[in-house]
Each structure stands twice: as structure tokens, then as C-alpha cells.
Write a structure and sequence with these properties.
Blueprint lengths: L2 H15 L3 E12 L5 E6 L4 E6 L15 E12 L4 E14 L1 H15 L17 E6 L4 H13 L4 E6 L7 H14 L5 E6 L13 H9 L4 E5 L7 H5 L2 E2 L3 H41 L4 H51 L1 H6 L4 E6 L2 E2 L14 E5 L5 E4 L7
Parallel strand pairs: 3-5, 6-7, 6-8, 8-9, 9-10
Antiparallel strand pairs: 1-2, 1-4, 2-3, 4-5, 11-12, 11-13, 13-14
Helix pairs in contact: 3-7, 4-5
């Protein structure tokens, strides 16, 4: 048989054997198309199957499908011959309850939140100018290439260290956590970007692994979580210091301040240049009317009144000093004349003498009355010049 003959046989067998089926499973990889059809996957723990709902049946939907929902669909099996795949063509879709994955994630989220791993107090500021950025992601993924291209364009001076890890599968979470711990142990970067491109809810499960969340929460290096597209989320978003909607957005956040700061510096440079030029022009305009002669005239007009005041103050000071000196000299002369008038020598100059008795070989007090001495007493007479010794012959009270 040819491939077409075999595929046609399979198509008739499947479509004829399963014209009406009701299937319950978890919604995953939900992606509305631009044509209006809905494409998605139904899965459980053991298998998955593609599904489609054409736009002419969408009006029967009473809710907005989201990944992780547990759905019950009714329809028929259809084989797409060109790709050799089969899927369920859905006529009706209804909710059967929350999906297992979302329930597990919600339970894990509540547990980790109760431990304080999502607290705002643990969040670190993202460095404005990181010199080295570490990227924990798949080395072959498109997300890494987007990050490298954006960093190269926006911040060519940044050094990038790639910490390779699988980002899908059961063991991926352990590898991601190990890379985060290694980056911290060796202090490999100033900032870590942890993430991957878009995918189904189960594809993103490694970034909700408990070990990954704990490694991010304990990281001393600030972490940006960049998992999937804008509508995707993982528990790493809650533990990270900053969540980016996409890996490309994470790269922009890591280099955002470079371009902004350069623009600010350029604007400040222009403002400073304009300010200095304006000041120079103003000074030129102010200095233009002034010549050397005019400056000398202005200087003298300021200086001369002060010199005049200085001369007046000097003359006043000298005059006050002369008057004070004459006054003191006059007072000194008067004091001298009074002192001279009170001097006993002045009296002696007029012919008077001081007469003192000699007692016990020493002169006594000057004699003021005749009764102070008696005949035979020895006397000392002090004229203006010299001394005279005498003896009393007679005393008279008259």
C-alpha cells in the first residue's frame, strides 16, 4: 500500500469506529488561531490527544478556556491525512473541574508562601548597571538567543555567562536549582535571568519545582524570572526579585538603565553646554561697555570717597590726640606747682629753718613750742643747706 492508501484505511477505521466520543482530560497548550478555530491538547497522567473546535461551534462555549482546566468534550475522531495525526473534533466543551496540575501548583504555592519564600522583605533591588549577567536556561533555546541579542544591542559592555540546563522534563527542576546554587557559590554574576520560552503548562513545570523556588528565594544574587509568554506563569515568578513577562523583556530590564542613562547624560551635556554658553554671553555683554580707562575711572570713583573719609578720620584723630595731650600737660603742670608749694624745701628757701631736739643721740620731732625744750638741751637746726648744732641757753614763753 502507499502511504495515502494506509492513511485512508486508518481514517475510515477510526472515524467509523468513533463517530461519537466523550473525553475528559486536562486542557493544555491552548492556542486560538487567527482564523477563529481553537486548538488545544487534552491530557491525563498517561497520555495526550490533540483537539480542535471549529469557530462555528465556539458560540456554545460558556467560559474562557485556560491551561490546567479539567474539561469534558464531546465530538468525533478525525484523521489529518497530510500529517498522519488524529484528533478530536469537538462539538461541545464543558468544565469538569480544576486540573490536577493547577491543583498541585496551588497547593505548593500555599505551602511555600506560608514559609515566607514569597515575602516582599526578601526581594532585592535589581542592579542598575550589572557588569555580568548569568542566564540559567537551555543553551539551544530561542529564549537564550533573544536575551543575547537584546543585551548585545542595548548594553554591549555587559558580560554574559550562560549556565546551561534542560528546561523541560522531570529532572529539569533539579538542574535549574543546581545552576542557581552554583552561580551563588562562585559569585559568577551580578544578576541572574532564570527562564525559558513559551510552552504548555506541563512544559513549564520545572520552574515551579520546589527546589527551584527555594534556590531562587535563597539566592544572594538578584534574580529575574522570565518563564514563557506574558500569559504564562510559574512559581519561580513569585520567589524571584522581579518577574519579566518574557525572556526578551528580562533582557530589556537588565539593560534598561543603560540606554536611559545615556540619554540623560546627553541631555545634561546639552543643558550644561547651553548654560555655560549663556553665562559667557551675558558676561561678554556686561563687560563690553567697560574700557581700561573707564574701569580706572570707576575704581577711583569708588576709592576716592573712602580715601577722603580716611583722611578726615586721620585729622580728627590727630586733633583729638593734641587736645588730650595739652589737657594732660596742663594738669601735670598744676600738679607740679601744687607739689612744689607743699614741699618743705620751698619754705626753707624763704629763710626758714627746721629745729629738732637731740635725744639719745637722735633728732626728735620738729619743735613747735618753746615749752617743748629746756635750757641745756642739744638742738639740730636744718636750714636750706647744711646742718647746725646748738645748745639751749634760755627758754622764754613770750
Amino acid at each position: 500500500m502507499t502511504v495515502s492508501e494506509l492513511t485512508e484505511l486508518i481514517r475510515r477505521s477510526l472515524e467509523g469506529s468513533f463517530p461519537h466520543v466523550t473525553v475528559e482530560g486536562e486542557l493544555s497548550n491552548y492556542r486560538p488561531s487567527s482564523t477563529g478555530h481553537l486548538y488545544f491538547t487534552l491530557k491525563d497522567l498517561g497520555a495526550s490527544i490533540n483537539a480542535i473546535m471549529f469557530r462555528n461551534r465556539i458560540s456554545s462555549l460558556t467560559f474562557e478556556p485556560k491551561d490546567g482546566m479539567l474539561l469534558r468534550v464531546r465530538g468525533s475522531l478525525s484523521v489529518y491525512a497530510q500529517r498522519g495525526t488524529y484528533s478530536i473534533v469537538c462539538e461541545e466543551i464543558e468544565r469538569a473541574g480544576e486540573g490536577d496540575i493547577l491543583a498541585i501548583l496551588e497547593e505548593r504555592k500555599q505551602k511555600l508562601a506560608a514559609e515566607g519564600l514569597f515575602d516582599e522583605e526578601l526581594k532585592q533591588p535589581i542592579p542598575r548597571f550589572p557588569q555580568t549577567v548569568g542566564v540559567v536556561s537551555s543553551p539551544t533555546g530561542a529564549a537564550l538567543q533573544d536575551i543575547l541579542n537584546i543585551l548585545k544591542r542595548r548594553a554591549p559592555g555587559i558580560k554574559v555567562i550562560v549556565l546551561p540546563t534542560p528546561v523541560q522534563g522531570e529532572e529539569a527542576g533539579e538542574f535549574i536549582a543546581r545552576r542557581i546554587k552554583q552561580a551563588n557559590f562562585w559569585k559568577l554574576a551580578d544578576l541572574l535571568i532564570v527562564g525559558r520560552g513559551g510552552g504548555s503548562l506541563e512544559d513549564l513545570l520545572p520552574f515551579s519545582d520546589e527546589a527551584v523556588v527555594r534556590a531562587i528565594a535563597k539566592s544572594t544574587i538578584p534574580v529575574i524570572s522570565a518563564v514563557g509568554h506574558e500569559i504564562d506563569w510559574a512559581l519561580s515568578d513569585f520567589a524571584a526579585d522581579l518577574r519579566a513577562p518574557t525572556p526578551s523583556a528580562a533582557a530589556e530590564l537588565a539593560s534598561d538603565d543603560w540606554d536611559d542613562t545615556l540619554e540623560i547624560i546627553r541631555a545634561l551635556e546639552d543643558d550644561l553646554y547651553s548654560y555655560v554658553n549663556n553665562r559667557i554671553e551675558r558676561i561678554k555683554l556686561m563687560a563690553k561697555p567697560f574700557s581700561a580707562h573707564d574701569l580706572e575711572y570707576r575704581f577711583r570713583s569708588i576709592l576716592q570717597p573712602r580715601l577722603l573719609r580716611f583722611d578726615e578720620a586721620k585729622d580728627s584723630l590727630w586733633g583729638n590726640m593734641r587736645e588730650r595731650t595739652m589737657e594732660l600737660r596742663q594738669r601735670l603742670n598744676l600738679a607740679k606747682m601744687g607739689l612744689q608749694a607743699a614741699s618743705p624745701l620751698s619754705v626753707l628757701e624763704r629763710g626758714y629753718s627746721v629745729v629738732m631736739p637731740m635725744r639719745d643721740g637722735k633728732p626728735g620731732q620738729p619743735i613747735r613750742r618753746a615749752t617743748d625744750i629746756k635750757p641745756g638741751d642739744s638742738l639740730i637746726i636744718r636750714p636750706l643747706e647744711g646742718l647746725v648744732s646748738a645748745t639751749v641757753n634760755e627758754v622764754s614763753n613770750r
